[in-house]
């Protein structure tokens, strides 16, 4: 990953380069931003630049011995930690081929979901296990081999086991010589507070619509796209280049989820307990992470339906395939029920994470959503006898 591979964020790139060239380099930095904003990519490009033998004014050279090893993610002074699923003898090094494949194919613009699919996590929740502290001890026992700086890169530090987090805290407080810790987080609020208070933040802002459009043009992702189509795509991406890629490629899971969402909401027009049970069982058959994404998608749809009647298109992020249903139930999601609807979504997600029986969760969830929306459906004449 080079700075030139990163979409937009020229201000942040320049700041990191200036810090490196001036020698003002914090020993522990947290790159935090939304999925697809470029936090992971920036951290990896920065690590490469710091150790490049002939860094230029805007990027690493790409030709020196260090850059060539970073190309293969095989530098002896680069250690990477990331969540994985446990096994009797497994460690992060066992998943390194998967990690290299993802970075090669996606260039750090991959999601947590894609990583879970790559390592076949299923219903298991990937974490960074406590045994990785032994891995760090082993690596840090050696002197820096050949780099200017030894880099410890941690993807999703919020997923660290408490034992490992405390180990990292000690490293942050007493950093080994010529060692820099770079972390990329999607959810910094769940990183150990004592670590957060001792590191430097690099806040990665959402990409602007113009940056997303330029990224799409540079990569030739839409061969016959007009300016209007590009603008719509950039707007729907909501600052995430990863989301823009999904919109271009067609996010199959999102489409399948919306089919279920349509069943739930159109079912309110003529409630049928048997159909509710069938839908709840269909959702229960999904993996836990897929269930969470479905409920989150429904919550997002409620938010868009609330805004739709105001006609403020710049605030609305409905996809074309969602517009039909949104217009059909226009006005049903309103200021009287939006709070309870979002609370039900939050409650369902909390129950999923607590491993409550999935069939019970979703049958109850559909009943509660039906109860919250029924008065509005009746007043709009959407309820059928």
From TrEMBL:
EC number: 2.7.7.7
Gene Ontology biological-process entries: DNA-templated DNA replication
Pfam families per the UniProt record, alphabetical: DNA_pol3_delta2 (PF13177)
InterPro entries found in the cross-reference section: DNA_Rep/Repair_Clamp_Loader (IPR050238), P-loop_NTPase (IPR027417)
Record keywords: Nucleotidyltransferase, Transferase
Record keyword Nucleotidyltransferase present: yes
Example of a GO MF term: DNA-directed DNA polymerase activity
PANTHER family in UniProt: DNA POLYMERASE III SUBUNIT DELTA (PTHR11669:SF8), REPLICATION FACTOR C / DNA POLYMERASE III GAMMA-TAU SUBUNIT (PTHR11669)
Protein's recorded name: DNA polymerase III subunit tau
């Amino acid at each position: 990953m080079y700075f030139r591979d990163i979409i937009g964020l020229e201000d942040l790139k320049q700041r990191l380069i200036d810090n490196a060239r001036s020698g003002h380099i914090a020993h522990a930095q947290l790159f935090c931003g939304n999925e697809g904003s470029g936090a992971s990519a920036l951290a990896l490009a920065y690590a490469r630049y710091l150790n490049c033998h002939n860094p230029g004014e805007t990027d690493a050279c790409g030709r020196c011995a260090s850059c060539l090893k970073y190309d293969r993610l095989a530098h002896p002074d680069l250690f990477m930690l990331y969540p994985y699923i446990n096994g009797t003898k497994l460690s992060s090094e066992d998943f390194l081929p998967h990690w290299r494949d993802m970075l090669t194919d996606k260039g750090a613009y991959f999601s947590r979901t894609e990583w879970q699919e790559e390592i076949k996590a299923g219903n298991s929740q990937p974490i960074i296990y406590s045994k990785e502290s032994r891995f760090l001890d082993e690596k840090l026992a050696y002197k820096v081999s050949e780099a200017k700086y030894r880099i410890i890169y941690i993807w999703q530090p919020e997923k660290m086991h408490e034992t490992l987090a405390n180990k990292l805290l000690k490293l942050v407080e007493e950093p080994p010589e010529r060692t820099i810790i770079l972390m990329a987080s999607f959810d910094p609020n769940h990183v150990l507070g004592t670590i957060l208070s001792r590191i430097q933040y690099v806040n990665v802002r959402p990409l602007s619509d113009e940056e997303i459009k330029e990224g799409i043009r540079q990569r030739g992702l839409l061969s016959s796209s007009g300016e209007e189509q590009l603008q719509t795509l950039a707007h729907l991406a909501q600052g995430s280049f990863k989301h823009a890629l999904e919109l271009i490629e067609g996010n199959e899971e999102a489409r399948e989820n919306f089919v279920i969402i349509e069943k739930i909401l159109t079912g309110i027009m003529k409630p049928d307990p048997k159909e509710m049970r069938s839908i709840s069982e269909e959702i229960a058959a999904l993996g836990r992470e897929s269930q969470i994404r479905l409920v989150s998608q429904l919550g997002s749809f409620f938010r868009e339906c609330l805004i739709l009647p105001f006609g403020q298109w710049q605030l609305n992020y409905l996809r074309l395939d969602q517009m039909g249903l949104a217009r059909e139930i226009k006005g049903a999601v309103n200021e009287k029920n939006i709070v309870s609807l979002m609370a039900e979504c939050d409650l369902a997600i909390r129950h999923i994470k607590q491993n409550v029986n999935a069939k019970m969760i979703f049958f109850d969830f559909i009943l509660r959503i039906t109860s919250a929306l029924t008065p509005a459906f009746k007043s709009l004449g959407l309820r059928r006898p």
